[in-house]
Amino acid sequence: MALRLLALQSSLLFAFQLASSACNSDIKGPYPISLVVYNSIKGKNLTYTTEIAYRGILLGAMKKIQASTSTFRFTTKEDSNYGPFLVSVNGVAGNPADHTYWELLAKLKNGTTIRPDVGVGCYIPNPHDTIILKFRKWDQEEDHVVCNLLYVSC
Ligand code: B12
Predict the structure, then answer these.
(1) Whole-prediction pTM value?
(2) CATH number of the domain where residue 74 is located
(3) Domain range spanning residue 63?
């Protein structure tokens, strides 16, 4: 009986160690990303770097940059369907009347620039991505075409 209990105890201990080591090996550290704020209308560029949590959302990284520097400020407006819409960056706000908005782009490690098909609250940057927030004018027809292509071009 005592032997059986001992065997049970050691197999439980083994299973626990196995499970905890599997979980620990799954914990991945934060990784670096850059954020470029580009005003294509004024031709101005500002670059920030930060660390983002493993599989963390872009909005989290933007909040982190905002908390650590006085030179990056942004505002969002909650959309009930798609989450936060990026309204302004560093005091410059998009305006539907002028057809201006902050476009979200991501330059990947391999050099390709993509236009994510989700906003800042859903986009999960990859390690070493350069996120580009680009203030631009939208051309109704052009954006219609781009939207139909699921934002694969920019
Ligand atoms: C027109 C449009 C835009 C215009 C809106 C301007 C305007 N005042 O009309 C502009 C060019 C600004 C735009 C921008 C973006 N858009 Co857009 N857009 C659309 C589109 C084609 C129609 C929306 C619409 O007018 N609906 C009708 C009106 C009556 O309903 P509404 O609820 O009032 O519409 C508002 C919201 O849709 C909001 N909106 C538009 N795009 C986005 C994106 C996000 C993330 C949020 C939170 C809100 C939002 O603006 C609309 C007007 O106020 C839809 C696709 C579709 N066919 O529905 C995509 C769509 C909503 N957009 C999308 C995306 C991804 C974006 C961008 C993130 C693209 C990018 N990489 O930059 C940016 C937003 C960046 C930011 N600043 O946060 C996705 C959202 C998917 C998702 N799950 O998040 C959609 C569904 C297209 C797709 N890829 O399938 N967009």
Answers:
(1) 0.86
(2) 2.170.130.30
(3) 31-148
